[in-house]
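FORM 12-B: Structure-to-Sequence Request
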């Protein structure tokens, strides 16, 4: 999945680039698909997160990946990358961003990652506030996905995940207990 945020593009991939390539050999054979990124046999072959940040060709994405890795989040590492799409709005443009590697998908807090990414991005690029740059329809969609405008209002004050963490997690344990009865696996 490709997500654009501020000046960055995030590729969310629950498996390693090599595993993605095995599932789609056409991706490996198309020129430019892996240009500017490293390929590994297994996610476990990845070097330390600090090493990954130093490998980026673009200072901004390396800094962003390094800052995310510095948070020490369990089960996930971030690495800078660049790619050139072959279709769509950005066809032929060199895009850059941060690739997200989920090493322990069951143990990763995906909700926290997206808010921590916005927090880190804001710390690095305070003039690129997504709530100020987005048009009204995108703000409405954010509020719908979050369930209300309270999440955005709380977060936008200081752009800190800690400001919304309690609000987002207040009903989590009760929800898990209720939902657990209906899970098939």
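FORM 12-B RESPONSE
SEQUENCE OUT:
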């Amino acid at each position: 999945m490709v997500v654009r945020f501020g000046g960055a593009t995030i590729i969310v991939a629950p498996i390693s680039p090599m595993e993605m390539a095995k599932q789609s050999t056409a991706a490996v054979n198309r020129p430019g698909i892996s240009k500017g990124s490293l390929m590994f046999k297994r996610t476990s072959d990845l070097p330390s997160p600090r090493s990954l940040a130093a490998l980026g060709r673009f200072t901004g994405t390396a800094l962003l990946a390094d800052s995310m890795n510095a948070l020490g989040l369990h089960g996930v590492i971030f690495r800078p990358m660049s790619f050139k799409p072959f279709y769509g709005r950005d066809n032929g443009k060199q895009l850059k961003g941060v690739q997200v590697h989920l090493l322990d998908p069951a143990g990763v807090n995906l909700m926290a990652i997206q808010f921590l990414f916005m927090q880190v991005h804001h710390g690095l690029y305070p003039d690129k506030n997504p709530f100020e740059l987005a048009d009204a329809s995108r703000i409405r969609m954010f509020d719908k996905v979050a369930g209300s405008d309270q999440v955005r209002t709380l977060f936008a004050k200081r752009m800190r995940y800690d400001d919304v963490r309690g609000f987002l997690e207040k009903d989590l344990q009760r929800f898990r207990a209720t939902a657990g009865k209906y899970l098939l696996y």
